[in-house]
Amino acid sequence: MLFEGLPIVTDKDISELIKHVQNGAIDEQLAAIKILIQYAVQNDKNYENVLQGGLFDIALQIHSKSEKKSPLYDVCGIVASIDKCMENQMIQMDQQIKEKDQEINSLRVQIGNSERKTSIDASSNLNQDGRNTELGKLKDLENQFNAKILAKDREINQQKSLLIQQQSNVTTLENQLQKLNAKIKRLESQSDPVDRLHNDEQEVNIDGNKSGSLIQQLKVYEQKIEELNHELDEKEDQLHDQKLQSQEAQAELQLSLDEMLAQLSDKEMILKDAARELTQVKEELEMAQNQLRRIHDETDNISGNSNQRIEDLEREVSRLRNVILTNDAKIREQEQHEKELERLRNENIQLDSKIKELNKIEEIRNNYKEKKYQQDDNEMYSDEDGLLLGAESITKSLSIQERIQRKAALIYGKDIGDQPVPTTSLIKQNDRRQESDFDQSQISKIPFPNSKSSNRLTPVDSQQQNEQLIQYRNQIKVKNLEIQRLREENKDYLNALKKMERGINYSIQGEYDQDNEINRLKIHAEQLKEELKKEKLRTDEEFSVRKASIISTAGEVVNEKERIYEERLMLIEKQKQSLERDLKYSREEKNHLEGKMRRIQEREIQREKDRDFEREQDYQELLAMEKEINILRGGQQQSVHGIRDKTYGSYRNGDSNQVIRLQKELKELKGKKYKLNQQEMKTNGNCYFDIPEILDIPYVHIILATAKYCDKDHEIQKVALRQLSSIITSGQCEDWRKALLSTSGVFADLASLLESKPSEYTIEVIFGIVDGILKANKEGVGQFLDPFVIKEFLSILGADIRMLKRIHVAPIARLTVHSTDEQRDDLVRQRALPVIIKILDHPDQHVCGDAIVALSNIILAGCRRISGTPRNHPYYSQFESLGGINRLVHFFNHTTNDNMRKSSALCLGRLFRNQKMPQQIAVPVIKYLKNVSALETDPQNVCVCLNTLTSLASTKENHEEISSNNFLNDLAHRISDASDSLGKSNSRNLMSMANAALILLVLLIQRGERSTRTAIQRVVLTKHVHALASQKDDLTVAEQAQLYLQCNL
């Protein structure tokens, strides 16, 4: 997990942490940055808090001011780039929001213009199109993935074909080299040393019949010898042919074995490539899952946009509410207008009261109508008063009507006749009164004089009064007409008021309808919101189902591919097992052929012994004849010796070229005199010989015969063993002589001596001789690995470890140093591990140190044998069952020698290859290996420790301990040092250490968690790796750097 183990941060700690970033030390700054980044990546709110605190601006400033080698340069650069990435992401999100807003606007238009069902179907179709688009993208990704796999398979096939062609070329060259080596060895074996030299040639003339007969017999014997030599040459030729055939068969067998091994290595490489491809498939699956997560996030954004649309609808409803409030304000204004109209109505009521007064006047007129002729004088006055009163009432009513019209004009901005005004019940009552017989009531309104008046009129006055009355009547008629006209106008006014009332009622009803419409829209919006929520839930369910089906489909595809790869791996494993069986059968066949060759050689040796016996018999007969000839010729025996030597030389050297060479050497040595008599010099009881005599005379048979028949106390063997020990242990023996000694059967004789259980001193001498011969002698390793020799030497080492000394263990350590991996594996098959592990209990650390060296080389051979495969160490189970791991741990914890401690740590690290190392072992061992690789200056030691850590990094359970204590920074420094040293004199050593570091980092990335990859990317600068990948001085480092860059893509 990223930032695992960091403390939890609250909002109060942000400012303090930012102060540490700005003003603290480097360690405090790095720690504060890690904590703040952990806090920021939790959610958007935390990110906004960190952004407002100014962390990213401070990080950018520190990045610009820091040096490139400072860790703050990279860390702060990454933090600043995070802010930039978030800004770009926000821009993209804003663009997406704008696009979604446009879609929502279009949806609003559709909602306003169509029914709800149509809008929901449209939104469903839109979501379905989005999902179809995402599914199309997933299908495209799957097609690209399949195309990559096919391309990778084609590349693998091409590499396989090239590798097979190269291996065939290498095999051809190796065959040619083996043939040349065999030819060289065959030519060297043909050059036998000159056994005897002859310096004088004389002709012997024997007088007499007896000497002549002897000479004839000698010639007969010579002919027999020549025939025997001829037969012997034929048999030797046949044997040589058989030997050549067996060598050819052995060479063919070796070639077949090499081919099988090459095929096995090819299969292992194929297995490794398959594992790498499986890792790539897993990474691509992870990428597909990330793509699915991104699709899910986009779907969430779409659902968020739906929520946004609902919010927009709510805002629309609130806007409509505002409109309603505005309308309410207008309604209140209209109510104020209505109040004004109510005031006008009151004035109209006052007008009605005046009209009542007129009605009263009319009643009074009716009451006094009958008395009009009687009271003329008083009537005149009353008519004048009535007229004045009627005129005053009419004038008041007209003024009231004019005021009403002006008020209505001010309120409505137009004439009262065109604007409907609401009325009341009083106006309706007045309408009913106006419908009565008002014309007659208003005919005259003449108040009669008081009846108490006593004045009387004359006829002239009566006539004048009648004229005046007629005149007054006419005037009253005019006034009544005017009143009628005013009543009509008042009626129009009342009609206008009714129209106004109906308009106001219509307006109020419209407002009620508008309220109902608003309520209906609210209900519709709520229903639409519920429908959208239901649609969102249904869409989420469909998407989750579709997502689950896509994931299951992708999982099925990946499972199918994994199944195919597993079948391939099983097939490869079966082929490997068959190859191993074939290899085992080939080895058994090889052992069988070797046993057959040994038996043939033993038979040939026996035949050679038989022939030597026959020759010895012939030689004895020749000696008898020689004695007789010596008697006859009186000491002249050199001729016989010459004949014998010539015969022996022709027998030993059948090749004509060798005969010519020997003749040349005889001519060169002619004139030199080598006496055959011994020159004895007795000094202190010892006998010495001249050097030429020892060099030129074949003492082989003499020494063997003397040792076998004449040396009862075995003095010759002791002297030979002592002489061999003094020469070998003193370093006076050259390497080529050691090679000849190892092939001469010395090891078998020494093993035979050990089998006879000699004294302790003799055993020490034998082990010293073997150690001296094996020193810097790779050719002698194969001779020493003879089962009989190894068995006898291991029997001495495993008898009693308390009696062992360092000289006893040194040959085994020397043997593992100069042996190949196959020879070390052969040593394990001959059960050497239990003996060597048992030696670790010896109290002497030097003895244990040699045993550690032997075990380290054997364990290294096992690691190389399974290199490139995800298998455990082949010898781990044997070590665990024999208690070797506990002994190594004990030795590691208690030794005081740094070299021995390092060797034991390497042994433990390689044994736990591809498996978790226990905590009590991992903590000290891995820590020690990391310290050595970080502090050591010797590139070989550094590379060995890094390779051992690579063996442990094969499993991710060991990654935490490997990555602890800033070890990744040490690896990054190795890479940066190598990058900086390009073109310099010391770049070779630095490049080798950087190569080992890159191998370890690549394995940590491939087998580790995402947090491990992130930590590596944080400390390793890509520019240094690019520099190593682009250089051409060391192609191995360049290839490894390119692999590292590919893993980080």
Shape: rod-shaped
Q: Return the structural class.
A: mainly alpha
Q: What is the strand tally?
A: 2
Radius of gyration: 64 Å
Gap from first CA to last CA? 20 Å
- Largest sheet, order of strands side by side? 1-2
Could you walk me through the main structural features you see in this protein, from its secondary elements to its overall organization?
The chain is mainly alpha-helical and 1049 residues long. Among the domains are: 13-111; 139-177; 637-668, no CATH class; 916-1049, Leucine-rich Repeat Variant (Alpha Horseshoe), CATH 1.25.10.10. 80% of the residues lie in helices and 0% in strands. It contains 36 helices and 2 strands. It has helices at residues 13-23, 26-40, 44-53, 55-65, 71-113, 116-189, 209-367, 376-412, 425-434, 438-441, 459-633, 638-652, 656-668, 691-696, 700-710, 715-729, 735-742, 746-755, 760-774, 779-784, 787-797, 806-818, 821-829, 833-839, 845-865, 876-882, 884-894, 898-911, 919-935, 939-952, 959-963, 967-980, 987-1007, 1010-1019, 1022-1030, 1035-1047, and strands spanning 682-683, 686-687. It has a two-stranded antiparallel sheet. Strand 1 and strand 2 (686-687) form a beta hairpin. Helix 35 (1022-1030) packs across helix 36. The longest helix is centred in the middle third of the chain and has 175 residues, at 459-633.
List keywords for this structure.
single chain; 1049 residues; 36 helices; disordered N terminus
